[in-house]
């Protein structure tokens, strides 16, 4: 049985078209060897996750966007972890 996922919160700062600075937050799980496996994705598909993949919850319970490590690193959130123990556990 796979271990429970550890959810972490990350933030990114961006500027809008008017030059105003804003902050956005996202809660994700970085897949480990213990939590890899199948997850449901938007559109009804199944993805086989691997360590390093990043799961982003969607508005539908137990359905995720799955990012590769490269996609996550380019997102602007990767280097901005807020804390190690935040966010609700989603099942």
Short description:
The protein has one helix and seven strands.
Structural account:
The protein is mainly β and 91 residues long. The chain has one domain. The chain is 5% helix and 41% strand. The chain has one helix and seven strands; from the N terminus they run ββββββαβ. It has a seven-stranded mixed β-sheet with strand order 4-3-6-5-2-1-7. The chain is elongated and about 45 Å long. The two termini are 14 Å apart.
The number of E-state strands comes to 7
Low-pLDDT windows of residues:
83-91
Strand content: 35-45%
Q: How would a crystallographer describe the biggest sheet? A: 7 strands, mixed
Shape: elongated
Give the class from helix and strand content and strand pairing: mainly beta
What sequence of helices (H) and strands (E) makes up the elements? Answer: EEEEEEHE
Whole-number count of domains: 1
Strand order of the largest sheet: 4-3-6-5-2-1-7
First and last CA, distance = 14 Å
Name the average pLDDT. Answer: 85
Provide a count of the helices: 1
Overall radius of gyration: 14 Å
Work out the helicity level: under 10%
Annotation keywords:
disordered C terminus, 91 residues, 5% helix, 7-stranded mixed β-sheet, mainly beta
Q: What topology does this entry show?
A:
Elements: E1 8-15, E2 21-30, E3 38-41, E4 46-48, E5 54-57, E6 63-67, H1 69-73, E7 81-83
């Amino acid at each position: 049985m796979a271990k429970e996922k550890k959810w972490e919160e990350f933030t990114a700062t961006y500027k809008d078209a008017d030059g105003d600075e804003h902050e956005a937050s996202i809660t994700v799980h970085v897949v480990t060897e213990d939590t890899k496996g199948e997850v449901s994705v938007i559109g009804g598909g199944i993805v086989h996750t691997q360590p390093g993949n990043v799961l982003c919850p969607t508005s539908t319970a137990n359905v995720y966007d799955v990012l590769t490590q490269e996609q996550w690193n380019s997102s602007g959130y990767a280097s901005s972890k807020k804390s190690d123990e935040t966010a609700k556990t989603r099942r």
